[in-house]
Amino acid sequence: MKYFVGADCGGTKSEILIGDETGKLTGKYIGAGYLEFATDLHAKLQTGSIDAEKFNSEFISKYLEQTIKHLDDALAQSNLGLSDVHALFASMAAINGGDMQMNFEKDLRGKMSNQNVSVRNDMYGAWRAGTDKYPSGVIAIGTGTNIMFFDENGSSTSVEGKIKYQAARALGFRAFMHACYSAIDLLEPTILTEHICEFAKTETLEEAFAKTNYGSDINSLPYHQFVPYVYGAAEKNDRVAEDFVNQTGRGFAECICAGIEDLGWKDKEIPLVLNGGAFKGKGYVMEKAIKDCLVGCPNLILFQAEHEPVYGALMLAYESYNYGTAIQATDEEIAKFGLKRKIGQ
Fold first, then answer.
1. What is the pTM for the complete model shown?
2. Among 90, 238, 260, 345, whose Cα sits 20 to 30 Å from the Cα of 43?
């Protein structure tokens, strides 16, 4: 029996999905993301105990080590090994080509018995979970953010550098710090102050503020997890939360428009897939903010992906090597493995 693996290895978590040659889903695994070790490396970089070159080499080494361990653990749950894998498609947030991608592919191929290994940026899994139509743009917002456009041949163009507000973590950080200052210095009141201690896991506002090193440490808390509170407050017409969401949505919209202009796609119909951690739950709040800023782009079709990115990665594992069988998962299987996304309203 041939087995196929899709991996979505991000900052917050890593997900691995396994299917057999009949297209049946056989296993799913969730492990830690790279933030587990990246935070410590960032701290060393900021204190000067390691330089940028050392940071990059250690990051790549640890990322490879973590990914292979997750793959081994995921396959072991199904009594399989890497030698049983016919094709692997790994979509990883930290991959943007170059040496890192080459090292990953080389190392993974060395562990497996064949050459059917692709390592790409995680936008590929997010895109395929939403649509198989080219051209297509993707927004995926987790701890990191990117916008990538895919042309008719499947080649991609990243416009990440044009985004003003890079991450859900930054959105959460800005909103959290405003909430702290609002409560302590009696600035404009915001519903978000109600969630400070709950989020920071402290008894008092002062302790929560101190836990961030008084606003100077963006790595001290998982700020992307504060974003749902921001959406909830925006739903209740909290002006502060609305401002932060609208600023971020406007930044994405401007980036999308700039990318379309650069690529000469003004007259093309483009399905724009919204995927990633920040579009779960009440992510429709961000979707609306983006749509409101794109009313002048009638050729854009915005929608949220129906499935998790790891499902898209597995689809690509089947498709990338021209294997005849596609995923034949039933609704029961999809429900069992938690692959259907909760889009909200």
1. 0.86
2. 90
